[in-house]
Design goal:
The complex is a heterodimer of chains A (246) and B (325). By secondary structure, chain A is an alpha/beta fold. Chain A is 26% helix and 30% strand. Chain A contains six helices and 13 strands. A nine-stranded mixed β-sheet of chain A has the order 9-8-7-10-6-1-4-5-11, sandwiched between helices. The mean pLDDT of chain A is 96. In chain B, the strands form three sheets. Chain B has a seven-stranded parallel β-sheet, with helices on both faces. Chain B has a five-stranded parallel β-sheet with strand order 13-12-14-15-16. The radius of gyration of chain B is 21 Å and the shape is globular. The N and C termini of chain B lie far apart (49 Å). Classes of the chains: A alpha/beta (246), B alpha/beta (325). Chains A and B meet through helix 3, helix 4, strand 7, strand 8 and strand 9 of A and helix 3, helix 4, strand 5, strand 7 and strand 8 of B. Strand 13 of chain A pairs parallel with strand 16 of chain B, so a sheet runs across the interface. Bound molecules: flavin-adenine dinucleotide (FAD). Flavin-adenine dinucleotide (FAD) binds next to helix 6, helix 7 and helix 9 of chain B. The site of flavin-adenine dinucleotide has 25 residues of chain B, from helix 6, helix 7 and helix 9.
Chain lengths: 246, 325
């Protein structure tokens, strides 16, 4: 089985978000970048399934400029076999999806996995776009994935429950908890990652369809209004009369 | 030219988030000087669909094919795309739900449309561009996004627009068929398993949420959370470590790796307010924090707070809600 796992390079969760002076771009200065946490579920599950089958390959794919390579190497250290980087700054979800679909089209991948969304852009879009561009099913968001021959059984989260879905390969799934326990690289993985192939390809495809015209920070909170614990009931009156939420 | 809105129904009822997007779509239609048509998916009754008139919808399309009761990506995408073509929809509006995200992204390719998810405001025209404000960076920022293609799809975040009700107005419900074939149902679910929702309120849809963290000390104390939730008509939620140790089921876990919610009221009990937790709840309108540690980071994100022991404070709150009548 050939797995393709798409990873995005995102600011570490604890990053304080700031923008360039024109508010058009995220300010990367001094920011630590990590593999998107949701993508770690996709990566680990692909490696687990490959191991269980005793064969196959896991290829990681990132659309990004050269500065994303440390995290691509990290994915190789976790256990992917090889990597492809499409050499372009991700412009929007459609642009990224087209790059992924173009790589996947000729790659003969059976299973394409990615995280549910990225923690920076929070689009929750790329999976469906890739599925539609390739004309194959998408299961989003998936909480469980098992394979038996060419048939996959997935648990898909729905509001208030889950659906059990069966699809044949090839398909796309966007992953989320509790798919697996994400792995961290060990020493041996880190050593071997250096020698694994990382291919760089140039972008193809159409213009992006959206453009961020301005980023902003949400309005600042007024500050907390504290109510003494002895008069806890007072809070309920405030929620009704002042905040008007109950 | 028109606006088409996707209405999700469950057990005959229109979901709350769909009443919100119906309102949103009607207002977009007004901006554009056109009308808003709805296409309904899921299990609906004609009476409830007709009531979408109250949100300003002028016509509802409904395909009563029984296999559409549960979500099927292939079939839903084709059904909605067919409705969009038939109505000449220029703007398509969905809820930013699991269904909305799954079909919205496929539709954007099929209809050659630009897509904005997580929208938190009405769109506006600015310098000739169609601009939508959306949440970004896990709630830590907002982004204005220009949609640059002729056709546009907007997925609206829950609780970011209030549903309007113009009592008594009804919309005609028309039978509609997209000529679906068996192939369109290839990814139909084999089984649907609904989970118990404490208090009967669905967390992703809830407009009030009472949530507990490790400070609740154990599953056996959750009756305190449930009692307050029940009194308020709220859903219950929890922090990640709580679901990791199985005090609560995974589907109640909110945060960066759990679900993201934006209720009008979020009450956090014995939760420290780690940044990963905040990522799932920080766009709640009003945040209440109860924590015995006055230095807990959550107080910085809170609107109201009580420095105190949850075991002492929660029963008092429940009592006070009951006294409101
Ligand atoms: C990659 C990553 C992703 C993560 N994703 C998530 C996520 O999605 N959601 C999430 O929640 N976390 C997530 N976490 C974990 C997060 O960092 C915190 O560890 C977690 O939110 C802490 O949960 P807590 O506040 O319930 O527990 P604790 O940090 O243990 O805090 C318990 C709080 O309860 C208070 N308390 C104790 N006893 C009482 C009492 N009797 N009365 C009142 N207050 C009391 C304490 O003062 C303390 O503030 C993630 C972490 C990582 C690294």
């Amino acid at each position: 089985m050939k797995f393709l796992v798409c990873i995005s390079n995102v600011p570490d969760t604890t990053t304080k978000i700031t923008f360039t002076p024109d508010n058009k771009e995220f300010n990367k200065a001094g920011v630590q970048f990590v593999i998107n946490p949701w993508d770690e579920y996709a990566l680990t599950r692909a490696i687990e399934l490959k191991e269980a089958q005793g064969g196959g390959t896991v290829t990681v794919l990132n659309v990004g400029e050269a500065d994303t390579e440390p995290n691509i190497r990290k994915a190789l250290a976790i256990g992917a076999d090889d990597a492809i980087r499409v050499n372009a700054a991700p412009k929007d979800a459609f642009f990224v999806a087209e790059q992924i679909a173009n790589v996947a089209k000729d790659g003969g991948y059976d299973v394409i996995l990615m995280g549910k969304e990225s923690i920076d852009y929070n689009g929750f879009q790329v999976h469906g776009m890739v599925g539609e561009l390739l004309g194959i099913p998408t299961v989003a968001p998936a909480m469980k994935l098992d394979l038996s021959g060419n048939t996959a059984t997935l648990e898909r989260e729905i509001e208030g429950g889950k659906e059990i879905v069966e699809v044949n390969t090839p398909f796309v799934a966007s992953c989320q908890q509790p798919m697996c326990e994400p792995r961290i690289p060990n020493m041996r993985g880190i050593m071997t990652a250096r020698t694994k192939p990382l291919k760089v390809v140039e972008p193809t495809g159409d213009a992006p369809r959206t453009e961020v015209t301005e980023f902003a920070l949400p309005p600042k909170k007024q500050g907390v209004k504290l109510i003494p614990a002895e008069n806890a009931g007072e809070l309920i009156k405030l929620l009704r009369n002042e905040a008007k939420v109950i | 030219m028109s606006v088409l809105v996707v209405i999700e129904c469950d057990k005959g009822e229109v979901k709350k988030s769909s009443l919100e997007v119906a309102t949103y779509a009607s207002q977009v239609a007004q901006q554009l000087g056109t009308t808003a048509t709805a296409v309904a998916v899921g299990e609906a009754t004609e009476d409830n669909l007709a009531k979408l008139g109250e949100q300003g919808i002028s016509k509802v399309l409904y395909d009563a094919e029984p296999r559409l009761k549960d979500f099927v990506n292939g079939a839903y995408t084709k059904l909605i795309a067919t409705a969009a073509e038939q109505e000449g929809a220029q703007v398509l509006v969905l809820a930013n739900s699991n269904i909305g995200a799954a079909v919205g992204s496929r539709l954007s390719i099929r209809l050659k449309a630009s897509l904005a998810t997580n929208a938190v405001e009405m769109p506006r025209t600015e310098g000739g561009q169609f601009v939508v404000k959306r949440g970004a960076f896990s709630g830590k920022a907002l982004a204005d996004v220009a949609l640059t293609t002729d056709r546009k799809i907007i997925a609206v975040k829950k609780n970011s627009i209030e549903a309007q009700h113009e009592a008594g107005k009804t919309a005609p419900v028309e039978k509609f068929s997209a000529n679906l074939t068996d192939a369109d149902f290839a990814d139909a679910p084999k089984q649907v398993i609904m989970q118990d929702q404490a208090g009967g309120v669905l967390l992703p849809e809830a407009d009030k949420v009472v949530s507990g963290g490790r400070g609740m000390k154990g599953a056996e104390n959750w009756n305190l959370i449930e009692d307050l939730a029940k009194a308020l008509g709220a859903a219950t939620a929890c922090s990640k470590p709580v679901s990791d140790v199985d005090w609560r089921p995974h589907h109640e876990h909110v945060g960066q790796t759990g679900i993201t919610i934006s209720p009008n009221l979020y009450i956090a009990c014995g939760i420290s307010g780690a940044i990963q937790h905040l990522a799932g709840v920080n766009s709640s309108k009003v945040i209440v924090v109860i924590n015995k540690d006055p230095e807990a980071p959550f107080f910085k994100a809170a609107d109201y707070g009580i420095v105190g022991d949850v075991f002492d404070v929660l029963p008092k709150l429940t009592q006070a809600v009951k006294e409101l009548g």
